[in-house]
Structure formats: C-alpha cells, structure tokens
Amino acid sequence: MYCLVVSATPDIPWNDLRARARHATTTSYAPYSRVTVGACAVTDDGRLIDGANVENASYGLTLCAECSLVSDLIRQGGGRLVAVSIVAGDGQPIAPCGRCRQVLFEHGGNELLIDAGDDRTPTALSQLLPDAFGPDDLGVRRSG
Ligand code: THU
Measured from the CA of 88, which atom of ligand 1 is nearest? Predict the structure, then answer.
C-alpha cells in the first residue's frame, strides 16, 4: 500500500538556513551597534543566498542583513525567495525590521516564510506586513 503525502508548503532546509545565517553573522560589519546579524534564504529554484549587516559611521545609512541578502539575490540572477532565517550573533532568530519587511516583500511576497525560532511555526510575511504595498500597486495607482 502506498501513502502519498502532499504538503501545502515545500520542504524548507531550515537547519541549513539557520546554520548559514549564523555563519553570515561572522562576516557582518557592525562596529557601532555590535549587533551582528546574518541571514540566509532559499529561492524557489533551491539556491541559498546569504547576507550580513553593514553599518556606517553615518548611522542611518546602515544596511541590514536582509538588504545585503537581496542585493546578492539580484546579483546572482534574481528569483523568488521562499523562506529566510535571520539571526543575531547569539545564534537566535530576530524579527526583521520594518524596512526589511518591505524589502523582502518585493522578492518573496506574502507567502515568504520567516524563521521564528525553535519550536515555533515559521511566520508568513503577510503576518508581519499585512496589506503590503507592492509592485502590483504601481500599475493601478499611476496618474496618466
Ligand atoms: N539589523 C539587521 O541587520 N536586520 C534587521 O532586520 C534588524 C536590524 C541590524 C542593523 C544594525 O546593524 C543592527 O542590526 C542593530 O540595529
């Protein structure tokens, strides 16, 4: 007898994402806050993309780990993000900041899964950024 299991979500290599995000914290440049952040995402074609935060003496110009990750995504040919783990230097997942929720939305949409830590169900981006403004809004909101 065969049993076919159909999962609503694809298999996500959470352990790999978490491990690579932790390693990415060691490549962070965070001399001002001393909060190192690393991120790793998997794309819909199975690629793993990393990022780390890059701070600046002009504090407001700091690039978050997620911005670094999205920059690498585009540099490596683009694609859709399916799941992402974002961790601080203590190795534990952190919530993406508001700006990064918007940046991630552009490349992963409502379904993007965010690592919420051990024993917690991953969070869909739609929960962190409800009713998001995105690329689809531009076409219908332009004047002329
Ligand atoms: N940081 C990120 O890299 N991603 C986030 O989503 C939250 C904050 C970084 C920015 C800064 O270098 C440090 O964490 C402290 O805010």
Answer: 14
Ligand 1 pocket at CB < 6 A: 30, 33, 35, 37, 53, 55, 62, 64-66, 96-97, 100
Residue 66 designated active-site: yes
Question: Residue 107 burial (CB < 10 Å; 0-12/13-18/19+)?
Answer: buried
Residue 137 confidence (pLDDT): 94
For residue 81, give both structure tokens. 């993000």
pTM above 0.85, yes or no: yes
User: For 67, which DSSP code?
Assistant: H
Rounded CA-CA distance 86/53 in Å is 11
